Amino acid sequence: MTSVLPDAGPADERLDAQLSELAEELRRLGRVVVAFSGGADSAFLAAVAHRTLGDDAHAVTAVSPSLAGDEEADCKALAAEWGLRWTPVVTHEMERAAYRLNDTDRCFHCKAELMDVVGPIAAAEGATVVLGVNLDDLGDHRPGQKAAIDAGAAFPLVATGFSKADVRAASLRLGLRTWDKPAMACLASRIPYGTHVSVGLLSQVDRAESALRRLGLRQLRVRHYDDTARLEVPLEDLPLVLARRDDVVQAVRAQGYRYVTLDLEGFRSGNLNG
Question: Which of 61, 128, 186, 189 has its CA 20 to 30 A from that of 267?
Fold first, then answer.
């Protein structure tokens, strides 16, 4: 297979060593099925796995109402750009009552469904399911990680010491356009625990966030509270939201919200985990 490292670029011995360790870890696994959501972490892992293992790396994207439509389209685009062996598969977490209940273990049931669907693909290929979990993810409330581990998944980025910052730096080193892609958790993370998840609510949030991206906002969350949308954007984007207040309000109200509020604390990943 071709080298993971590009032919030219700024030298970074520590990063290059990590990339080499990651390639070696993937070779040790032999064949892998990458759970590929299109985010910076899973995209980086899919790209390195493809460069290291060729067609022994299979990128699989779980398609369901909890995956934003823009993300599904980007997975397809990235697979074409990078020459990945890629398959979209439909998952059915919405059919699980425990997932729809939306308690603090919601992510466990989502990942269990993912493994139930992707696991047989990996088994048929004699492969290991790998997820783009990095060191920073280990400190957050992520019950889905336990479901993945219980089902035999591996976390190569954790095994080779990659933090989120390392993933972004290594992605830039490899020329991956996802190096600065904003974090994009599943749409259910916008709905407070205890509020039942439905296809309608997920679609409403997806449409609202997509409309705001068309206004030029890259990193954002639309937190759903019945008829109220609470917008989170990075603090540096607050002036943009205020300058385009009428457009923002119109875009969000058009998706069925009555009230549009702006969180002055700004964007925080995992905001509803506490």
Answer: 61
3-state secondary structure (DSSP) of residue 182: coil
Within 10 angstroms of residue 42's Cβ, the number of other Cβ atoms is 24
Res. 254: pLDDT tops 60: yes
Q: How many Å apart are CA 254 and CA 146, to the nearest integer?
A: 38
> What pTM was computed for the model?
0.89
CB-CB neighbours of 150 under 10 Å = 12
Summarize pLDDT for 31-40 with one digit per residue, the tens.
999 999 999 9
Residue 140 banded pLDDT, cuts 50, 70, 90 = low
Task: Give mean pLDDT, residues 177-195.
Answer: 92
Instruction: Supply the DSSP symbol for 181.
Output: P
Work out the average pLDDT over 204-225: 95
Residue 79 CA to residue 91 CA, distance in Å, equals 19
Whole-angstrom CA distances from 31 to 40, 54, 110, 266 are 21, 9, 24, 41
**For the chain, what is the mean pLDDT?**
92
Which positions ≥6 away from 5 have C-beta within 8 Å? Answer: 16, 19, 20, 173, 174
> Distance of alpha carbon 18 from its chain centroid, rounded?
22
**Please, is 5 exposed, middle or buried when counting C-beta atoms within 10 Å of its C-beta (0-12, 13-18, 19+)?**
middle
CA–CA dist 135, 21 (Å, integer): 15
Provide φ and ψ at 223, rounded to 5°. Answer: -85, 130
Res 151: pLDDT: 87
CA 57 – CA 85 distance, rounded (Å): 7
